[in-house]
Amino acid sequence: MIEPSLSRDGVDGHFLQIRSIVKTYDDVVAVNDVSLDIAKGDIFALLGASGSGKSTLLRMLAGFETPNSGKIILDGEDIVSLAPYRRPINMMFQSYALFPHMTVEQNIAYGLKQDRMPKAMIADKVVQMLRLVHMEKYAKRKPEQLSGGQRQRVALARSLAKSPKLLLLDEPMGALDKKLRNRMQLEVVDIIESVGVTCVMVTHDQEEAMTMANRIAIMEEGSIVQSGTPRDIYEAPNSLQAAEFIGSMNLFRGAITVDAQDHAVIDSDEINNQLYVSYGVTTAIEDKHVVFAVRPEKTLISRDQPQGEYNWCRGVVHDIAYLGGHSVYHIRLNNGKILYSFMVNSDRFADQPTWEEQVYVYWSDDSGLVLRP
Amino acid sequence: MKKVTERLKRHAEHGKRWVIAVPTLWLMLFFALPFLIVLKIAFAESAIAIPPYTQLLTMADDAFDLHVYFGNFIFLTEDALYLTAYLNSLKMAAISTFLCLLIGYPMAYHIARAKPSTQTVLLLLILLPSWTSFLIRIYAWIGILKSNGILNNTLMWLGVVDQPLAILNTNVAVYIGIVYAYLPFMILPLYANLVKHDHSLIEASQDLGARWLQSFWRITFPLSRNGIIAGCMLVFIPVVGEYVIPELLGGTNSIVIGKVLWQEFFNNRDWPLASSLALIMLLLLMLPIHFFRKYQEKEWEEGK
Ligand SMILES: Nc1ncnc2c1ncn2[C@@H]1O[C@H](COP(=O)(O)OP(=O)(O)OP(=O)(O)O)[C@@H](O)[C@H]1O
Ligand SMILES: [Mg+2]
What we know:
- The complex is a heterodimer.
- Chain A is α+β, with helices and mostly antiparallel strands.
- Chain A has 8 helices and 20 strands.
- A 6-stranded mixed sheet of chain A has the order 6-7-8-3-9-10, sandwiched between helices. In chain A, strands 13-12-11-14-20 form a 5-stranded antiparallel sheet, with no helix packed on it.
- Chain A is elongated, with a radius of gyration of 25 Å.
- Chain B has one domain (73-302): MetI-like (MetI-like fold, Orthogonal Bundle).
- Chain B has 13 helices and 2 strands; from the N terminus they run αββαααααααααααα.
- Chain B has helices at 2-42, 71-78, 80-113, 116-127, 134-145, 150-158, 171-194, 199-207, 212-223, 225-240, 244-249, 257-267, 271-303, and strands at 57-60, 63-66.
- A two-stranded antiparallel ribbon of chain B has the order 1-2.
- The chains are: A alpha+beta, B mainly alpha.
């Protein structure tokens, strides 16, 4: 580890244990030796680019795919060899997969009927579920007579009706438009938390993962790059992939010149001054090449030259993206490199640097991160 | 410029009219006109003449004389032969439709589930026999089913039976022939329906605790209802009037409407009676078609 980790990975997660799962399709390795621990009550997001193997992993949890090797232990029981209909797991499908020939009520009751639950109990449970997702008025409707958001609620109610030990969500907001998405993210989390079910969801939208989940794992090419709380991953990414996947980063390639117990200094061709981090970086002598990373919102812009010899540079304002709450400044250094810096628009008409003005960008010693290329 | 677009528009309107005109003309020529002729003959009297029936409208003493005769229809109710023929035909059509569904559904299901490249091959195999003449294919069944035919020879050689089975010229042979000939008409609409099914519905069903068979009965089967209805119509309607298969494979005592029609028309040369027989059959078939249309309309309404 070359950064201070805030993660408590594996400390409390024993409800769902995924152990060395491998899944290949012909010559494609879709999931490559994935191990994860998920605690009871967690909302856990698998975040990754398209084709990274998120859906495949989720489908193995549901039982629709069989792993080549590895174990999936849910609440102390290895479920790998259980058929989907025997697993105490329910899934909300990306397309919702509501049965088009059944009413909302019948859709929700479907799973309960399979369990041979008495009719009166089914009816009670259906009413309870409809109330949970605020769909009491639509009980007799067919799925095609519902809006996208309403369909999602029905799908959620259906997958919660059997009180599963584990709820799976595949791209839960994938079929909704942007505005509805933001509302439903919070609503779905509310519902899941009120039921208290452990949940694993799949998404390629980092904002969605950070809004909904309390723990995230980043997947790339079938492997887990990093897992932890949203804050861990944002503030302490353990690799370049993780850093680039979530939020934006200013990166400088360079080599370590000073490697002390409590700090390190990095020389980079891409910036005039040296870079300083206020934590020790253990490096081998033959592997001094690193990437220094700093988030745009951790940098400041001023017209005056900052004090000290580390962590600042001079450039001109290349572009300004005004986003209301804050502006993104694109600062061009004299070697052509563009740095990004956020400036909070706290005053309505403040005297801020403008196009082609010369400015200095600087940041504090504890803002930067050292990552392996 | 405006002129050009206007002219184009006029052409488009013209084109549209033409596009509609072609099928309309087709229907007029090959459905409405023959139907009217049959209708006309059905209300005429049989006569020794060319053509062998009386005219509906005659000119006598500078006045038109309309001569409508209902005797054919009355005659149809008097002789039990015709009622038996109708009932036999309906029974034959119902049983063969059911058999086609029973055999065709699993076939359509598996074709729809196969890999896309395999699907094409399998569909081609289903259609391939139709490329040879219908008559020849039915004749071939005589060779297979007769006492010293391929089937009986094989069974005797295997020692399964020691006497040849009398299959040819029985109802069994007729059913074999009909199911064989009409199976593609059942499979194709079913396939077209099943191939559109969203597989995630079956996964959702399994996920909610249903096994394969339950998922099939509660999800796949109800959702393929339209395919089933279309397939059954495509088999049932032509089989009611089927003549060739009962004639070639069935016994002399298998009385179906197609055969009776043939006898009245060619053996007895009673064109009016044959026409009225055909007319009643058409009316009988209108019933299921009407229900089907009503059902489709309802589906449409619900779909909105
Ligand atoms: N049934 C399959 N047959 C062959 N290859 C498959 C199959 N399913 C997935 N793959 C491959 O496995 C890899 C991972 O696919 P997966 O669907 O899990 O990705 P994903 O992370 O869910 O992507 P997306 O965000 O696009 O849904 C991909 O390279 C994909 O091509
Ligand atoms: Mg996916």
